[in-house]
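The protein record quoted in full:

***
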Amino acid sequence: MAAVVLDLDGVLWLGDEPLPGAADAVARFRSAGLAVGFMTNNSSLPVGGYVDKLGRLGVPADPSEVLTSALAAADLLAADLSPGSKVLACSGPGVVEALEARGFEVVDAGPAEAVVVGWHRTFDFERLHRASSAIRAGARFVATNTDATYPAPDGLLPGNGSLVAAVATASGRRPEVAGKPERPTVALVRARFGDRGVVAGDRPSTDGALAAALGWPFALVVSSATLSGDEPTEHAADFVGPSLAGLADGIIGSLTA
């Protein structure tokens, strides 16, 4: 079964506001016999939190349809670290959930075998100090993603890349990156949804690059993030429009022809 893998922020919603026509577009994809996945670089919420939010905004979803950069980060570490390893989570609860599901012991200060930095609103000097100190002491440094910003109703908010940059500066180390468009996320999408689909998102640098890595078409939903001037142009979109609803016909046609 072919799949449509959708970004969330800027595609289905802005903040807590649903974008017009997005829920109907998802329903149309399903009616056309397509699998639907939700892939976000925002690691702040547990999977159930995203399922609940999707439902509140008119998009019923199963947990198996939700993929996050937190899951990709946990997969990345699980390939090398044994269950029970200590991992410092400089993050929100989404990363904690993903790490615990993989059997890691989540701590908030070193010593630790790895540090995972994910987006959260309580990042402060103390968290910066703990994360960077553990990394300088030898912990592996993993970022859920390096998006500098993400879209909100009143403009762009600082993204996880801004937090990662602070930790990288303080620790003197560069992170491994798990989220879109990196290899752990490519593997996660393929494992859940197979080899044929379309990626729809508002960032050529992440969503477009993920589509390219998968060998899938890219549907670009134009948002404030797209128009920020920070997005590269090398990942050309196969479909472009101001909303997911406006792209639905083209996406369905490309996957059902």
Q: What stands out?
A: The first strand starts at residue 3 and ends at 6. The radius of gyration is 18 Å. The chain has a mean pLDDT of 94.
